[in-house]
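Figure S7 source data.
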Amino acid sequence: MNTEVTIAGVTFKNPVMTASGTFGSGMEYSDFVDLNRLGAVVTKGVANVPWPGNPVPRVTEVYGGMLNAIGLQNPGVEVFVERDLAFLADYDTKVIVNVCGKSVEDYLEVVERLSDEKVDMLEINVSCPNVKEGAIAFGQNKDALYDITSKIKAKAKQPIIMKLSPNVTSISEMAKAAEAAGADAISLINTITGMKIDIYKRQFALANKTGGMSGPAIKPVAVRMVYEASHAVNIPVIGMGGIQNAVDAIEFIMAGATAVAVGAMNFHDPYTTVKVVEGIEEYMTKYGVEEINDIRGIV
Amino acid sequence: MNTEVTIAGVTFKNPVMTASGTFGSGMEYSDFVDLNRLGAVVTKGVANVPWPGNPVPRVTEVYGGMLNAIGLQNPGVEVFVERDLAFLADYDTKVIVNVCGKSVEDYLEVVERLSDEKVDMLEINVSCPNVKEGAIAFGQNKDALYDITSKIKAKAKQPIIMKLSPNVTSISEMAKAAEAAGADAISLINTITGMKIDIYKRQFALANKTGGMSGPAIKPVAVRMVYEASHAVNIPVIGMGGIQNAVDAIEFIMAGATAVAVGAMNFHDPYTTVKVVEGIEEYMTKYGVEEINDIRGIV
Amino acid sequence: MAHKVKKAAKVLSQRQIAEGIFDMWLETTIAGDVKPGQFVGVYPVNKSTLLPRPISICEVDKERSAIRLVYRVVGSGTAEFALYEPGDFIMILGPLGNGFPIEKAAGKNVVVIGGGIGVPPLLETAKRLSMETGDNKPDSVSGVMGYRNSDGFLFDEFKEYAQMHMATEDGSAGVKGNVIDAMRQDQVKCDVIFACGPMPMLRGIKAYAEEIGAKAYLSLEERMACGVGACLGCITKTKEIDHHSKVHNARICTDGPVFDADDLDM
Amino acid sequence: MAHKVKKAAKVLSQRQIAEGIFDMWLETTIAGDVKPGQFVGVYPVNKSTLLPRPISICEVDKERSAIRLVYRVVGSGTAEFALYEPGDFIMILGPLGNGFPIEKAAGKNVVVIGGGIGVPPLLETAKRLSMETGDNKPDSVSGVMGYRNSDGFLFDEFKEYAQMHMATEDGSAGVKGNVIDAMRQDQVKCDVIFACGPMPMLRGIKAYAEEIGAKAYLSLEERMACGVGACLGCITKTKEIDHHSKVHNARICTDGPVFDADDLDM
Ligand SMILES: Cc1cc2nc3c(=O)[nH]c(=O)nc-3n(C[C@H](O)[C@H](O)[C@H](O)COP(=O)(O)OP(=O)(O)OC[C@H]3O[C@@H](n4cnc5c(N)ncnc54)[C@H](O)[C@@H]3O)c2cc1C
Ligand SMILES: Cc1cc2nc3c(=O)[nH]c(=O)nc-3n(C[C@H](O)[C@H](O)[C@H](O)COP(=O)(O)OP(=O)(O)OC[C@H]3O[C@@H](n4cnc5c(N)ncnc54)[C@H](O)[C@@H]3O)c2cc1C
Ligand SMILES: Cc1cc2nc3c(=O)[nH]c(=O)nc-3n(C[C@H](O)[C@H](O)[C@H](O)COP(=O)(O)O)c2cc1C
Ligand SMILES: Cc1cc2nc3c(=O)[nH]c(=O)nc-3n(C[C@H](O)[C@H](O)[C@H](O)COP(=O)(O)O)c2cc1C
Ligand code: FES
Ligand code: FES
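Tokens for the predicted flavin mononucleotide complex:
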């Protein structure tokens, strides 16, 4: 049985990653999970300088999931390199750094700063719905996406994954724009923009009014988009959105994903990632799947 | 206490409607619900001629909701007028007919046929994700939406509601296009396109591969879109998506909806519509809301 | 037709009767007016699942105002049902569907045929057929049940009402093969068939009925959402333009689940 | 710091101790190494809700390997908790957070101050403070609890460990007013404060502590998702750039819930 997958020349011991922003830099979950068991740790988004994020409340629960409007709070790339990358260096797992910015220059600054660091891939977040400037603006317009992708690709030493927004009319078009601009892979979905109102307080549940929805409730939309995107492009797709267990992970793989990421469900069960790894192995054993790649896109 | 709302000159005794396609023509639920208690019955989509719809399986369950790919099966406008409208004529509730088509001409034919029938409003479905031609194509492109809206408006004797698709980058733009073309109101959201794969059978859960997602899982997206749309236009907005109870209905009203519709939750609890009506009345009494309109868009 | 309701029912008993097959009695006023072959929608408590699960009514006990459900654990809903204990309350929707046209069997040789988890609704059907004749276990009522193996759940209970025959896939009991094999081998007298089971079996029965000139009434299954005819999720293709859809699509939940085989385009 | 785990805990007892306030003991290995002021995340069974509810540990009984939770029913999760019965198993995550720095009170006059549903974590805190002095109900440990009315839940239990004072909003018991009014009126000796309660109360305490030159440690609340410092959902503004975020945002779930009042920008 072989669970290895390869994306842009980087080989992961298994297809299970953490979804950016839901796992800190791995440190916070190392009480629960042996990080060495994971295909990759994908870090929280990091910018060129520290970002304070949005006011609280930043999180609220919804049916089968949650809304967040963290607003990409992060300590800036310097602290990140010294503290978080240093921490991750001790583990036998791949490291994917999620990069955010308000302008193309912001992104480029982070990408350049990380050039010589021990980072396996860069995931470019152009799809965060919770910040006013940058971010999702690049992810909702195919020309802007093409532009930023090609500029980042030109500077990046590591392969780049463009993380796409589901808040678009056609995910295929966005995927194609990223591929055409040179992206090595795409990941999706980021959160879907949602809102919750407290009818007793007569106010928004989140200070930011809207937030990004994640959790099992969004899975059908995510699976559909992974299917559409993986049929639109030839670069690998990393699928995520509501994955709770190995069954969900395999659903994404059968829809066309080369790898998958576990997000909000870490909050429900901090052991989810490792359970997914184990569950995939069990499925492969039980149903005689030799290579995980054999079931990719099988439907 | 006054629960009446008025949309394009039509006054509804309360803001609670049935969502098209989830309540038949009312007949199927009359065992459970006194139709006279409802603000309006919105019928299943009807076309100029009978449509066979999609192959089975057409429905499947997902976390907190379902996917459907009925494909707008309907008996055609003639049978509909003779059977369904005749049935509804006996009730003291408003009748809104949901209209579908493959071409602009199809829609116009239905609209004209209904001109002299006892129909209070027409809801134009340009957002069904489950048919290949027509339908959603009009709902995902603002020029196409403008075009079909203005053509229907020119012919329709009754006020028209354009039913918008959530599968778009900007719901505000679509709402504005509908308003500019003369729509009397808009309703949203129709279902979000989703997919489910059975990993044991290694096949799609629906014969149509994709289906439209509805139920509580989609509510945060729906509330956000109702909020955005109602801030983008001056025509009334009818809100729907995952409404389970009066709390949800009031959430939509506070987000800006003039009326609301109950869809998939009828399948969970056939009494939902009437419970929503009663729950709104209780809330108004308890919190001293005189006019339902007083809390519309209050956040 | 009885008024449909959604209401609480009380679990009276629950036991496992074969590998993965459970037998649960519920106290409910729905029991008052049930036709054999009708079903109920059972709502799981687990809030991630909102749709009712269609389960056939296997038996009715009007005195206790109770219905019996016999079901196979196949997914999250049925797995949850298997955990219910006497005294628990659950929500059910019903009675749903049309049921078998018992009257069509009057004075004829009738055979109830069940396959796998299609067996349960035929128990109440056999009981009513036997009652109609006024006889105890009349000669004119036969039953043929097909199982994977010799577990033969419910089989013995049928013996009270009908002349019984068994088919097993693995040949471990009765006739090795399918229900048609058993019909032929045991030369079961047959003018009218009431059947429920997997699609290939039903197709076989339709062909067999045509061959021997019998009438067959088949109970079909399809994924359901509403269970009351509103969503158009559960259709089956019909030969003629049906009365409701006008497009050869009958709704299994309301126009069925039992159809005259001659009307179906299977 | 104790290793965090998510695991099943067994409900030992459950009772209502005031209008809408419940008191539940859980058997769990988490009890082994808890600091007063720490909390656990309790997962509802209802699958429409997936996030853990943060609930403070009110008391620890190491012998029974048990923790006590005292909670107010305010929404679907806490409403569900109130239905649990002895013998039920529930999932909890913990121990979470830093807890009160008991050591800072050594040799000082310390006051535990609780308001409303902020009262519970101070019970174990008072117990430990009293234990640390080696005395039974030492003079140096006081408690001031604020309630809406005279229900005064848990108040009597504090009397075993501390010199107690009560404030009620409606004046139906103790001092009419808030906890600061009671502090002043009863002239409570105070070098160090450990407090938990609503934000306005905590702001008042911070100001009062500055006024009298005392040190205050405040336990804060915020909406949480992960409870373990990963999601950055639960931040509070700090005066200085904090060690983790570098942007004046400390995480209440891990850097807190207890903060030195001097560090907070409230
Ligand atoms: C008219 C009718 C009568 C039935 N009678 C019985 C019976 O007496 N005993 C029995 O064991 N089973 C019966 N079934 C099948 C039973 O409904 C399914 O096995 C059950 O719904 C599975 O639910 P689950 O949650 O365990 O599985 P899941 O696969 O998790 O179910 C998910 C969803 O699919 C639907 N679904 C799954 N399988 C079927 C199916 N075969 N037919 C229709 N909907 C399905 C469920 O209602 C639910 O919405 C009947 C089905 C129909 C249509
Ligand atoms: C560190 C800490 C300790 C707490 N200790 C106690 C205690 O000992 N006793 C007690 O009764 N309450 C305590 N609370 C508040 C308690 O967490 C909430 O009342 C509870 O989560 C409400 O859940 P619900 O499902 O009933 O309500 P809902 O409103 O339905 O909850 C929905 C969501 O909001 C979150 N939430 C709601 N209110 C709060 C809140 N005030 N703070 C943080 N998250 C919230 C829930 O975790 C959940 O994710 C504490 C909160 C924190 C942060
Ligand atoms: C609290 C939170 C913070 C997140 N932060 C980021 C982020 O910094 N960068 C990013 O690309 N995605 C971020 N995401 C999105 C997730 O990585 C993921 O795409 C999304 O949550 C869907 O997966 P899920 O349903 O499994 O959570 C965040 C999600 C959550 C819930
Ligand atoms: C089974 C089913 C059939 C539907 N058919 C139609 C239709 O014919 N016309 C239409 O405009 N919307 C149709 N819809 C969409 C609903 O009217 C509604 O917009 C959507 O389901 C969201 O609301 P809900 O989450 O409350 O179900 C259908 C939805 C379902 C579940
Ligand atoms: S299940 Fe809805 S029509 Fe049959
Ligand atoms: S709740 Fe996630 S960081 Fe505190």
